[in-house]
Every structure is written in C-alpha cells, then in structure tokens.
Amino acid sequence: MSSADGSRDALAAVLRVAVAVLVLAALVWSTLEAGRAGTLPEHVSYFTNQSNLAFALVLLVTVMLPRPRRPRWWADVRGAVAFYLVMTGIIYALLVAPLDELLRWDIGWTGIMLHRVAPVAALLDWLQTPRVRAASRWRILVWLVYPLTYLGCTWLRGAVTGWYPYDFLDPTVSSWPQVLVTTVAMLLAFLAIGTLVHLLQGRARRREVPEKGLLADLR
Predict the structure, then answer these.
(1) Are 219 and 141 in contact (CB under 8 A)?
(2) pLDDT in tens, 52-75
(3) Number of domains composing the chain
(4) Could you list the residue range(s) of the whole structural domain that residue 98 is in?
(5) Which end of the chain has the smaller Cβ count within 10 Å, N or C?
(6) Total-model pTM
C-alpha cells in the first residue's frame, strides 16, 4: 500500500467514525425524547431509526476490521445498508415531509442528521467501497428481504394496535386499495434504486477481481 493510499484510508476511517458518532448521538437524543414522551415503542418502529442504527454499526465495524479481515460478504451488507439509507432519504422527501419542509433547515439537528446527512453519507461511502469481486445481481433481491419483512410486521402490528408509523402505510388514513397501490409503487422504486446502488459500487475506486462471495452460488 502506498503512502497516498494509507493517508486516504486513514482519512476515510476518521470520517466514518465521525459520521457514526453523530448518527448514534442523534438516535440516542431522539430516543430519550421519545422515552420522555411515552412513545418509545413507536419510535423504535420507524424505518428511519432502524436503518440509521444499522448504518452507524456498519461504519464502526468497517473501521475496526482491516480490509484483509473483512468477510467476503461484508460488501453485500454495506450495500444493503447504503440502499436502505438512500431509500430513507427518498421516502422522507417524497412521502413523509411536508413540501414546505424540504428547503428548510429548522427541523432539529436530529432530523437533519437522520433524514438528510446520513443518507448522503451512506451513498458516498458506498461509492468509495472498492469492488473486490464480481457481485451477484441476485443480491438486490436479498436486500429487499428486510424492507418486505418490515412492511409485513408493520401491517401486522397495525392490525393489532391500530398504529402505523407512516400514513402511506395506514389503511385508516385512506383505504387498503390506495395503500396497496402506494406499496407496489414503493416496491418498484426499491427495486430500481437497489439496482442503481448495486451498479454504483466502487465506481470511484474500482479494482474488481474474480472471487466468489456469499451470493456467488446464486448467479
């Protein structure tokens, strides 16, 4: 490894730790506020909070594990989390935030961190993730397992408690046909964005080598 590569990796590690600490701080702060408000069960049910927690943990593990010690499937995990964060930002902008909020910055530092900064940081980190093996296209479908599981659990819990984390998933706000139409559109968007994230891996630092990974057998 050249000195330039070493300096670049050191800077990347510092930035990853900084982003992870800020994301965790935002999550802790918002969780404490939810606890004081008595809405902790609802708070932990948001896709935003779950995906941001996964992102912070992945950043820290990436820093702690030297590249030669990382499992072959680690890039697939990083890609999945980047994908979830990108979708978090898109869904927030298109379906959750009021139109007048998108250009405002007075939404609280936790909202800015979790809804705006973290999705951008996750995408940038993924762009800098070297492609060290030929990735299977099937991993896009594997990435969809968590969103689909989240969707099923959300509807199941909503049927029992009457509470849904997002209005676009809540049939009591509109109707089941409308919710299903929105859900199908979202799943198509997830598939499209997942494909794009898959293709964007390591374009800035591509060094692909033929090596089998966790999903190689699915090709």
Answers:
(1) no
(2) 999 999 999 999 988 878 888 899
(3) 1
(4) 3-218
(5) N
(6) 0.86
